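Cross-check.
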Amino acid sequence: MKILIFVWIFISYINIFAQDTIYLDKKYKTISNRDQAHYLRVVKQDPDNSKQVVKQTFFKNGKFKSEVIYSNYYGKKKIVEKNTVWYENCQIHVVSNYKKGKKDGYFISYWENGQMKRKDLYKKGKLIEGKCFNISGEEVAYYDFEIQPEFPGGKNALILYLKESINYANISSSSKGQTVRVQFSIDTDGSIFDVKVVKSHDAITDYEAKRVIQNMPKWKPAIQDGKKVKVKRTVPITFK
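Predicted model, tokenized:
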């Protein structure tokens, strides 16, 4: 069995380099150097259906990382039919099914040992029923697959913080009513990092907007499939 698995991986690895391959770094950004790549990606079009595409991403060793099947890849909005994600040990992590771009059918995730972790049933994007299990296969209290990060106290507390934190001492009257958009990342401990302006007004308002975001208290981190994960968010700051 181990020999067969090795042969399958070896053939997959050869097939990757036999096609046009996109090289990606750890953050899935495209790079040109294969030796520095963390992931490899191949996008294959169905010869009988120009809209249907399979996007496969591999670990550098040739093992599957993910496979996304699109019923319409080249439209204004890509429509996913099925998404499968693997752990690096070749065990499937997540299998999700879609219909017209919405979750439809079973959404299943697994622990790295192969034990089922959750089994959710969706209909037109709505959760019908779901169950969660521990690593030993015992059912546990249900929890959402994705839990969004939250500013301490919620959205209203964030609005109040932004309003009270802006220092208008150096802001000119011509900047009143202008909006600066700031992108930032929330780490697994809730701390803020990688703050940058993505919509600028001028140097002074940009600096002040970044300062306010950098000084935010820790957020409740995002959670995906029971694990804390890093996420990016963008906040508009309007100078009134």
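Residues 1-18 have pLDDT under 50 and may be disordered. Helices lie at 2-17, 155-165, 203-214. Passed to J.P. for a second look.
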